[in-house]
Amino acid sequence: MPEGPSIVIAKEEMTVFIGKKVVEATGNAKIDMDRIEGKVLADVKSWGKHLLLCFDDFTVRIHFLLFGSYLVNEEKSATIRLGLVFKSGHINFYAAAVKVLEGDADLHYDWSADVMSDEWDPSKAIKKIADHKEELICDVLLDQDIFSGVGNIIKNEVLFRTRVNPNSIVGKIPSKKIKEIVEQARIYSFDFLKWKKEYQLKKQWLVHTKKECAQCGEPLVKEYTGKKKRRSFFCTTCQKLYV
Fold first, then answer.
1. Cβ distance 78 to 50 under 8 Å?
2. Rounded to an integer, what distance in angstroms lies between the CA atom of residue 146 and that of residue 144?
3. Any idea where the Formamidopyrimidine-DNA glycosylase catalytic domain is (predicted)?
4. Global pTM exceeds 0.85
């Protein structure tokens, strides 16, 4: 599943079509294609893992789920979920969830929850975390209402950076450490963006999918943690367990 930084890259690739008219809309998405044809793409935005194609009175939301993908000015031999053709090029989406949101995108999204947004508000994130004191930090970091855009890679790397075991109970983690986790969720997301653009992302992973701790050299634990049962990679020596 693409994480927030990958959606930002997709958004940036598609900004060349802003102000351009949709000549043709195709695909097997269950939306009104006729409504899109002839409309001018007013903006392209991202919120967490959602890509938003904004028109004057509605927004087309793209969620890539586990296996979704897109191509700009290219094609592949797969069923198109949504294809938008402009005079200057085209965009194809594959295996993604497509939904039309009525009205302006601002009516549907809290931009202060998006870790990559200019409107990101870490103080709000800290307040929201306080309402989940009995949950595990590995689950809270993946809560899109708190950390929109954070996925499993970012979760693992942030917890390693902050030296917190993913099985830690939120209410037992010191407030100073919670603040550090919130800060690193944003910092690492932008590091992720930079490295992915440079095709260096996997080379920069310190813990995700790794077998030995980059800090102490001890074997890492791979475990499906929390209620979400997502893969966690962590060091029981360097990452403290708060319970």
1. no
2. 5
3. 2-89
4. yes
**Looking at the predicted structure, is the pLDDT value of residue 205 above 80?**
yes
Which residues of the chain form CATH 1.10.8.50? 111-234
Residue 89: is it exposed, middle or buried by C-beta count within 10 angstroms (0-12/13-18/19+)? middle
CATH assignment of 4-107, given 3.40.50.1220, 3.20.190.10, 3.30.230.10, 3.40.50.2300? Answer: 3.20.190.10
Q: Model confidence at 2, in pLDDT bands (50, 70, 90)?
A: confident
Residue type at 74 in one-letter notation: E
> Contact at 8 Å (CB) between 177 and 169?
no
Neighbouring C-beta atoms of residue 33, cutoff 10 Å: 15
Residue 63 DSSP SS3: strand
Q: How many CB atoms lie within 10 A of CB 214?
A: 13
- pLDDT of 66: 84
Which of 191, 168, 190 has the alpha carbon at shortest distance from 178?
A: 168
Among the four given CATH numbers 1.10.357.10, 1.10.3210.10, 1.10.8.50, 2.40.160.60, the one describing domain 111-234 = 1.10.8.50
DSSP 134-201: TSBHHHHTT-TTTSBT--HHHHHHHHHHTTB-TT-BGGGS-HHHHHHHHHHHHHHHHHHHHHHHTT-H
Domain(s) labelled CATH 3.20.190.10 in the chain stretch across: 4-107
pLDDT attached to residue 189: 97
Residue 86 to residue 16: CA distance in whole angstroms: 11
DSSP single-letter state for residue 220? P
Residues 6+ apart with CB under 8 A from 131: none
